Amino acid sequence: MEVLVFDTIEEASAQALTIFKDAVDKGAKVFGLATGSTPEKLYELMVQSDIDFTESTSINLDEYYGLSGDHPQSYHYFMKQRLFDKKPFKTNYLPDGLNENTEEETARYNQILAENPIDLQLLGIGNNGHIGFNEPGADLDGKTQLADLAPSTIEANKRFFDSVEEVPTRAYSMGIASILNSKKILLLAFGESKAEAVKNMIEGPVTSEVPASALQKHENVIVILDKDAASLLSK
Ligand SMILES: O=P(O)(O)OC[C@H]1O[C@](O)(CO)[C@@H](O)[C@@H]1O
């Protein structure tokens, strides 16, 4: 893993933008995208940039189960507002949170991933070390699944909802194996609340208790941190 530390989220996100630009310049066509607070500045910079994604495909990591695409807290809505409406892609794929046929939806998404190998996968990390919604205990060889959110994730994400009861308890998520299949992975983490998860991901053992530690098995991972998220690293 290559680890880069910046003073501010702005500088860190600018570096992440450069990595996306380089990928596009080198012919990358399929981008794995994430939601949450972490990539918000990067998406803002993408919108302001001259990057052209009109020949590109995006594949999002996850979507809350039970939320329709026009629900303001759905990841469909988030992506449209923050990026897709302002920076068009050729195709945007996200899991369908309203598909109650789990087998059908996970198979559909796995097929999309098989047909569109990801050139560059963007990730955030949960306070508990999750990537996508692969929570502690997740199968490190898993593909797309309907995942149960960890209580700490529900707690962390309640800030986006009116009350904790409204936070969905399940989500469709790409699995760790799908994530590791990407040619290149770019993980962003900002703030002190991520410091322990970042330390465990980089310096701890590879264990399903810290799903992000599986990234140690991938040969092309760049981790971009602000100084608070990097504060517990030993060097
Ligand atoms: O970026 P946040 O809001 O801290 O969330 C952490 C991570 O958890 C997820 O929301 C789970 O999908 C990621 O997309 C995100 O980057």
Quick structural gist:
The protein contains seven helices and ten strands.
Q: Spatial order of the strands in the main sheet?
A: 1-10-9-6-2-3-5
CATH T-level fold name:
Rossmann fold
Number of helices: 7
- Unreliable parts: none
- Helical residue percent band: 25-40%
Identify the bound ligands: 6-O-phosphono-beta-D-fructofuranose
Number of strand elements: 10
Write down the overall geometry.
globular
Mean pLDDT rating = 97
* Count of separate structural domains: 1
Q: Tell me the span between the first and last alpha carbons.
A: 14 Å
The major pleated sheet works out as: 7 strands, parallel
* Helical/strand content category: alpha/beta
Order of helices and strands: EHEHEEHEHEEHEHEHE
What does the oligomeric state look like here? single chain
Structure description:
With 235 residues, the protein is α/β, with parallel strands linked by helices. The chain has a single domain (11-184, 199-205), classed as Rossmann fold (3-Layer(aba) Sandwich). It has 7 helices and 10 strands. A 7-stranded parallel beta sheet has the order 1-10-9-6-2-3-5, with helices on both faces. Helix 2 (40-48) links the parallel strand 2 (30-33) and strand 3 (57-60). Helix 1 crosses helix 2 (40-48). The longest helix is centred in the N-terminal third of the chain and has 17 residues, at 9-25. It is globular. The relative contact order is 0.18. The model has no long low-confidence stretch (mean pLDDT 97). Bound molecules: 6-O-phosphono-beta-D-fructofuranose. Residues 34-38, 61-62, 124, 126, 132-133 line the site of 6-O-phosphono-beta-D-fructofuranose. InterPro entries: Glc/Gal-6P_isomerase, Glucosamine6P_isomerase, Glucosamine6P_isomerase_CS, NagB/RpiA_transferase-like. Pathway: Amino-sugar metabolism; N-acetylneuraminate degradation; D-fructose 6-phosphate from N-acetylneuraminate: step 5/5. Residues 9-221 form the Glucosamine/galactosamine-6-phosphate isomerase domain.
